[in-house]
Amino acid sequence: MLKLQIPKNRMNYLIKQIPLHFDAVVLEQGWEYYHKGRVTEVDLKGMNVQATVAGKKILSTMLNLENFAASECSCSYEGFCKHIGATFFSLYAPYGRPELLLQQLKQQIHTRKKPARGATLIQERKAAAAAQANVPLEEAMPVDWHRFFEGKFHGFSISHQHSIETFYDSALESLPGYAADWRSSTRELYMFHIVLFMMRKIEQFYQDTKSSYLSYYHENGCKIAAKNCEDKLVEFVERTNVNTSFEAEPKHWLSTMKMLGEFALQGKDSPIDWLFVYRFIWWKLTNHSAAQKEEIQRLDALLTKKDLLARKKDTLLAARAHFDIMQGDTDRAFERLGQLTHPNAKDYFLYLNYYYNDKQWNNMLVWLRWLFTSIANANHDDFRTFCQYWLDTTKHLESDSEWVQVMESLLPRSYYYYTAYLLQTKRYRQWVDLQLANRISPLSLYGMELKAIEEHDSALLLPLYHQAAERAVLEKNRASYKTAVRLLKKLHGIYKQLGQDDRWEHYVYRLADKFSRLRAFQEELKKGKWIR
């Protein structure tokens, strides 16, 4: 019994190819040869299966597992012979009963469509050449390119932590070369579809491995590859005049946007930010109102459907609001976005980034105000981005009062941004009040910050050190008492600098009296020679 077992995806590929190349009678003769045990010495070399078939003569066959049309036999028969058929059935044996498969394949061969009467010999030869070459065609539609991509990576699956990276690198290395001789407008769009294909496969890998015990590693790999794909897509769009490209390849672009709309607005849990991709591309197609109108009608029809899942409805609403924004109707967009079940501030940084780069500060302000209600629940990175956008926008306004009010409203999350701004604008008293309100010890602050305030007015630091020293004493342990003494030494220095020695003595004796029962603390005060 033959032991060679090729991968299942390659076996499926051969099964699909057999009815396209074989005559039913020849295929049955091949099965008889296999059944009589005439196939021997089957070996896999690269993507070719080589075998010896014994008939009137000893013949050699070769089956190409990647391009079946290139398979060959050493016999004199023109076309696909019974020896190749026998080799095929020997490969199928580990998967099932070849005699049953024979009947299925014969049925497919008999029902196969014949070429149209009007087809010329030249057209037939061209079609055969294209099929044998197994390459994407320049005039083909994007959906055909994706079929080709799928065929090239059929059967690829996640088996270890780095398989996502392997897929990403392999796709970028192997697929672009097929379009090297195409006209530039089609080649650019082809490259765009390579990125879309990689995104779809990454999402598929993510969904397929969610239940795996290695899901954490696969998820991280998917997210890294997804971000790389998004960067590649942005890079492509930024270097391409999309409106000009649309005019050069209108059919391809309309097909592209239809395809994008179908799989980008499903609302799935995905490592790909499809909503960003969808809106980013549409925003570049500003000159094509007819295409926009058609997409708006499609979205409106989808939104009228009942029983939409909340996540998908949110995605559709955000997509529909995008066209309101493109048409300058921000109020209508906000009205739609107000219907979202789970608003996510990050989804709207696309607009902030656009207006920021275009220096449209009034529009920035409109969006920042609208996002305020949802930013409080944002993750750390999104919150930081929001604060930075606010700060940069404030520099172009007449007053920073609204920014200050926003930062105060978002405390304590905004502490680091607010405290830095107060120092930057030399609002030292407010800075000290902020530290007191958040019970921050001077020992936890940067020395340069304290020095700046001390040079301005050292008296502002007195309540900060008072509060921190007494908080340390209240912890009631020897280490805390030593910390309190360190703070008191600095406090003593400030009083001395201010020329208020009497006030210091009054304070330290009052402090000793207040904590007179804490003998260890009393000992620390005596070591400092502040009391007797």
Head-to-tail CA distance between termini: 102 Å
> How many individual domains?
4
Oligomer: single chain
Count of distinct strands: 4
**Contiguous helical run count:** 26
Global shape: elongated
Kindly report the average pLDDT value.
87
Organism: Paenibacillus germinis
Keywords: Metal-binding, Zinc, Zinc-finger
Protein name: SWIM zinc finger family protein
Domain SWIM-type: 59-92
Walkthrough of the structure:
There is one protein chain. This protein is mainly α and 532 residues long. It folds into 4 domains: 106 residues, no CATH class; 145 residues; 74 residues, no CATH class; 102 residues, no CATH class. Helix content is 65%, strand content 4%. The protein has 26 helices and 4 strands. Strands 1-2-3-4 form a 4-stranded antiparallel beta sheet, with helices on one face. α2 runs antiparallel to α4, α7 runs antiparallel to α8 and α7 runs parallel beside α9. The longest helix is centred in the middle third of the chain and has 25 residues. It starts with 7 loop residues before the first helix and ends in a 5-residue tail after the last helix. About 4% of the residues have low confidence.
Label this structure with key terms:
zinc-finger, four-stranded antiparallel beta sheet, single chain, 26 helices, 4 strands, Znf_SWIM, SWIM zinc finger family protein, zinc, 532 residues, mainly alpha, 4% strand, metal-binding, elongated
